[in-house]
Amino acid sequence: MAKFNLESLPKCGAKTRSGQPCQRYGNKTNGRCKLHGGRSTGAKTKEGKLAVRVNALLNSFTWYFNNHFEMKIKKTDIENAISAYFRLIDLSNITSTELNDEVINIVKEYRVELEMSKYYIAKHDGADALLTVQSALDHYYKDTAAQHLKFHIYTPIYPAPNYHRYSGSKAEHDNEIQMLARTTSKKGAFYSGRDYPSPEQKAFKKQLKEIRKLL
Fold first, then answer.
1. Cα–Cα distance measured from residue 81 to residue 137, given in angstroms and rounded to the nearest whole number
2. Any idea which of 29-38, 103-112, 183-192 has the lowest mean pLDDT?
3. Which of 30, 32, 47, 153 has its CA 20 to 30 A from that of 173?
4. What share of the chain has pLDDT > 70, as a percent?
């Protein structure tokens, strides 16, 4: 088999710390060597692709003004958010597991658009619209153990008005299985842990103590 001819590859050409262009061979994809982004696949997520847009700004003031005062949100993003919102309305009063999974899939595809446009939707369709969208978003965030909602694994929170699972989120199930596995490996299969008495049990024990004192 013939050896690959390195001479057929372009030189990287990236500016080095010395100020001179890099003389390493670049790859076929983007012409850069492995030290200057040759192994980079580029942004994959929607957030990453949006962040790339500000990497080489020449006029940051104009960009800031356009984004925060002119509200230049793409028409397609708003349309996708509204379409996803209408699909969520159809599922808002249903609690079966399969339909909850469908809610997850909708948010997974249009989460960025819904976050960008949820207040726009609420402005035109009322406060209930915000409850619908935010319930779906929180439902997704809990299932995927998003950092800003991860505390729900360890402590109860008031459930969202729509799409709530009485059996808990996927992240809660995964955490419970991990806890049970750790407990079983350390304490055995039938370890029950600390037993917290109910208020009725406490009152009954108190009555028993008083009776014993009289005896």
1. 12
2. 183-192
3. 47
4. 87
Q: Which one, of 11, 57, 5, 9, lies nearest residue 35 by Cα? A: 11
pTM tops 0.70, yes or no: no
First to last CA, the chain: 100
Distances in Å between the Cα of 47 and the Cα atoms of 5, 38, 52, 54, 111 are 38, 22, 9, 12, 10
pLDDT in tens, 55-89: 666 666 676 777 777 777 888 989 999 999 999 99
What is the spatial distance between Cα 141 and Cα 128, in angstroms, rounded to a whole number? 20
In order of 125, 153, 169, the CA distances from 156 in angstroms are: 30, 8, 12
Residues 6+ apart with CB under 8 A from 47: 112
Quick one: which of 85, 141, 69 has its CA closest to 117?
Answer: 85
